[in-house]
């Protein structure tokens, strides 16, 4: 857990390591290694505040048995990322993670391609999804692009947190479009905070773009990082890589 003082408040920012792509590598050869649960243990030992996994409908990386093993092994925050299908809701309620992050999911996509369209999902979330989680104690986070209208609708639903989609910022083709997206993220974070929800962020973050994000976007809490972190760990080792991300997050802004 990292305390970063800012002009606005004492901010508690923490790293959640997404271990999906440890499972991608394991599944490539049908072996039992590398084991995402072991990766989770090493990440937590190195200082990560928690672990994220995305159990996809097609089970392309994390599998059901991984989820139950992670639940037993993870001592910090367990963030269950999923589409809000009836199947996933049942599994999530069995597992009882601290946090559930709801994302859109497309069969053909390589990774989650953007935030939820709240206008489209609002009625379904209000009538089916949110009631299903009532009294479970699981906090609900919605993965959103920094659109004020989406944030307002998420607040209306009673979401505990918003995970801001940072993929557009991370993949911006030039400095001007990156700056524009950064301004949207800043405004989005301000609005989320004003409504009383927690501000999380993730997607496409790496050692190069993380410092800019955290120096400019206020109120960030959980930062979820997977692909770039796991990739770097092939060269550096997982412990050193996690520690380096945490060191960057500790830099005062
Ligand atoms: N947050 C969400 C909602 C995601 O879908 C993903 C990708 O699984 C991440 C964070 C992590 O993104 P990346 O693997 O690009 O770090």
Describe what you observe in this structure:
- With 253 residues, the protein is of the alpha/beta class.
- The chain has eleven helices and nine strands.
- It has helices at residues 20-29, 36-45, 64-73, 86-95, 118-133, 148-157, 167-170, 175-194, 210-216, 227-236, 238-250; strands at residues 2-5, 10-18, 50-54, 77-82, 99-102, 139-144, 161-165, 198-202, 220-225.
- It has an eight-stranded parallel β-barrel, surrounded by seven helices.
- The longest helix is centred in the C-terminal third of the chain and has 20 residues, at 175-194.
- The protein starts with a strand and ends with a helix.
- Residues 1-10 have low confidence and may be disordered.
- Pyridoxine-5'-phosphate is lined by residues 18, 20, 54, 81, 101, 103, 111-112, 143, 163, 202-205, 224-228.
Give a topology summary:
Elements: E1 2-5, E2 10-18, H1 20-29, H2 36-45, E3 50-54, H3 64-73, E4 77-82, H4 86-95, E5 99-102, H5 118-133, E6 139-144, H6 148-157, E7 161-165, H7 167-170, H8 175-194, E8 198-202, H9 210-216, E9 220-225, H10 227-236, H11 238-250
Parallel strand pairs: 2-3, 2-9, 3-4, 4-5, 5-6, 6-7, 7-8, 8-9
Antiparallel strand pairs: 1-2
Bound molecules: pyridoxine-5'-phosphate.
Pyridoxine-5'-phosphate binds at residues 18, 20, 54, 81, 101, 103, 111-112, 143, 163, 202-205, 224-228.
């Amino acid at each position: 857990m990292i305390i970063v003082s800012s002009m606005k408040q004492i901010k508690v920012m923490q790293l959640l390591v997404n271990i999906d792509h440890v499972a991608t590598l394991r599944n490539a050869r049908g072996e039992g290694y590398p084991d995402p649960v072991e990766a989770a243990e090493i990440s937590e030992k190195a200082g990560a505040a928690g672990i994220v996994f995305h159990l996809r409908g097609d089970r392309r990386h994390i599998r059901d048995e991984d989820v139950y093993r992670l639940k037993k092994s993870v001592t910090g925050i367990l963030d269950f990322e999923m589409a809000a299908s009836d199947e996933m809701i049942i599994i999530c309620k069995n597992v009882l993670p601290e946090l559930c992050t709801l994302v859109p999911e497309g069969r053909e996509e390589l990774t989650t391609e953007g935030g939820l369209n709240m206008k489209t999902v609002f009625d379904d979330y209000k009538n089916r999804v949110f009631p299903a989680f009532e009294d479970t104690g699981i906090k609900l986070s919605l993965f959103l692009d920094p659109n004020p209208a989406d944030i307002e609708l998420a607040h209306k639903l009673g979401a505990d947190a918003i995970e801001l989609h940072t993929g557009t910022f991370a993949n911006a083709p030039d400095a001007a479009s990156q700056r524009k997206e950064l301004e949207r993220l800043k405004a989005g974070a301000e609005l989320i905070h004003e409504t009383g929800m927690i501000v999380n962020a993730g997607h496409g973050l790496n050692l190069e773009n993380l410092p800019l994000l955290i120096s400019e976007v206020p109120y960030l809490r959980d930062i979820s990082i997977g692909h770039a972190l796991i990739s770097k760990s092939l060269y550096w080792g997982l412990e050193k890589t996690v520690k380096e991300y945490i060191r960057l997050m500790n830099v005062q802004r």
